[in-house]
Design brief:
Number of strands: 19
Distance between the termini: 29 Å
Largest sheet: 6 strands, mixed
Bound molecules: NADP nicotinamide-adenine-dinucleotide phosphate
Structural class: alpha/beta
CATH class of the largest domain: Alpha Beta
CATH superfamily of the largest domain: NAD(P)-binding Rossmann-like Domain
Helix content: 25-40%
Radius of gyration: 23 Å
CATH architecture of the largest domain: 3-Layer(aba) Sandwich
């Protein structure tokens, strides 16, 4: 018998479990998560109005319900059990901890109230217990969203939607209510480079053209000559085509505007004890790639700033870490004998959910080739240790009780109303 522990129950964790489970019967897999609920990024990262993407959890559920796999929730590595103890208990450990921390925006005023990282803001509208009390300032007329990736798109779209457009989503009640009362009318999306350098994908960008009460706006002067679009890779070409369409849209009756500020680098955020405006420097492209400042600045009024400039994996004591890349130091997923990483913890925060699948399968093959079963106790040893420490472990059937209660109290048309308080969740467990 080989005993494997996977830390993190998001996509990378479950794809790894799925791949390992397919290999042979002589394996036991514990998926450990600090939350009492599984699925990580699917629950707390994927936008609540993207239920078709969230539906991938059904695939993970099948894995979770198999005999070889256990969910060990509400267990924080480093608090309830140490990495050294896990390495003694299991034949191999896979770190699938994702990248839940924001890369900091290192500019003056970046720490003013009202400046919020996307991990916190997305966590807030997705019901992450750590961010349920965030209370972002929505009583202001304008917001700035920094970054030109898909997370910036998610944030701009969520800030723009009407309550009716959230029907069918699982946006949590506190965010649904606060966004319904929001005074925000202008949402600036700032990219330090131009339309040809965006990291947004076409389907997600195209959604902005079909909002009930918001219209995207692009300055035609920001585009390079149209004949350059042909040389772009197909996805980016489609995205740029959306931006060109946006440049011709009229607001009509729509009250909100999503303004794409290209060639715009935030220099500092100012305000009396809170964010009120941002000073932005215009940039130009150096040799078609890097953004360089032109020295020309302008001001954006914004009482809310959401930074969507990428994430990083939190380090774990004793595990080699590449601080500049925000991920564990690894070679094709191997950190050290018996210790592996997958997903964003391995690659850094890039790629879609599906990108984690090959990672999981690759690491499972490595483990098959490199890890032999021995006399380590695996899950039985972990249970003894956590029991002695009186850690309140949440099992998968406990989670199913929480899940049923969330479905039972859902708003009409919504699949669930998430619990955002850990004690409340624990109260539902056996
Ligand atoms: P991302 O795609 O890497 O985009 C980060 C953006 O931040 C880039 O435009 C980058 O600009 C900008 N940036 C970085 N540092 C900056 C700074 N100091 N000042 C100003 N701008 C800065 O990251 P993400 O949006 O967080 O997304 C993470 C991953 O999740 C991506 O792979 C994304 O596709 C995926 N995702 C997918 C979906 C979906 O499929 N629906 C939804 C959400 C996220 P430069 O290019 O100039 O560096």
């Amino acid at each position: 018998m080989r005993h494997i522990a996977i830390i993190g129950s998001g996509p990378a964790g479950y794809y790894s479990a799925e791949a390992l489970q397919k290999q042979d019967d002589g394996i036991r897999i514990d998926i450990i998560d600090r939350m009492p609920v599984p699925y990580g990024l699917i629950r707390f990262g994927v936008a609540p109005d993207h239920q078709s993407i969230k539906a991938v959890y059904k695939r993970y559920e099948k894995v979770a319900l198999s005999d070889e796999v256990r969910f060990v929730g509400n267990v924080l590595v480093g608090r309830d059990v140490s990495m050294a103890e896990l390495l003694d208990l299991y034949d191999a450990i896979i770190l699938a901890t994702g990248a839940p921390e924001d890369r900091p925006l290192d500019i003056p005023g970046g720490d003013l109230p009202g400046v919020i990282g996307s991990a916190a803001f997305v966590g807030w509208y997705n019901g992450h217990p750590d961010f349920a009390a965030l209370d972002p300032p929505l009583d202001v007329s304008a917001a700035a969203v920094i970054g030109n990736g898909n997370v910036a798109l998610d944030v701009a779209r969520i800030l723009s939607k009407t309550p009716a457009e959230f029907v069918g989503s699982d946006i949590v009640a506190h965010a649904f209510e606060a966004l319904g009362n929001s005074a925000i009318r202008n949402i600036h999306v700032l990219g330090r480079r131009g339309p040809h350098q965006i990291a947004m994908t076409p389907k997600e960008l195209g959604e902005l053209g079909h909002l009930e009460d918001a219209v995207p706006k692009v300055d035609p002067a920001d585009f390079p000559p149209p004949d350059g679009d042909a040389a772009l890779e197909p996805g980016l070409r489609k995205s740029v085509a959306h931006l060109r369409d946006f440049a011709g849209l009229q607001p009509g009756e729509r009250r909100k505007t999503i303004l794409f500020d290209f060639f715009a680098r935030p220099v500092r955020i100012e305000g009396e004890g809170k964010a009120e405006r941002m000073i932005v420097e215009r940039t130009r492209l150096d040799e078609g790639k890097a953004a360089v400042g032109t020295g020309e600045t302008y001001e954006i009024d914004c009482g809310l700033v959401v930074t969507c400039i990428g994430y990083r994996t939190p380090p774990i004591e004793g595990v080699p870490y590449e601080a500049d890349l925000g991920r564990f130091a690894n070679e094709n997923g191997l950190i050290s004998p018996g210790l592996y990483c997958v997903g964003w913890a391995r690659r850094g925060p890039t790629g879609t959910i599906g990108t984690n699948r090959p990672d999981g399968y690759e690491v499972a093959e490595k483990i098959a080739a490199e890890v032999r079963g021995g006399d380590k106790p695996g899950g039985a040893g972990l249970d003894r240790l956590l029991g002695a420490r009186k850690v309140r472990v949440v099992t998968f059937s406990d989670w199913q009780r929480i899940e049923a209660a969330e479905a039972a109290r859902a708003r009409q048309g919504s699949p669930r109303e998430k619990f955002v308080d850990i004690d409340e969740m624990l109260g539902l467990c056996r």
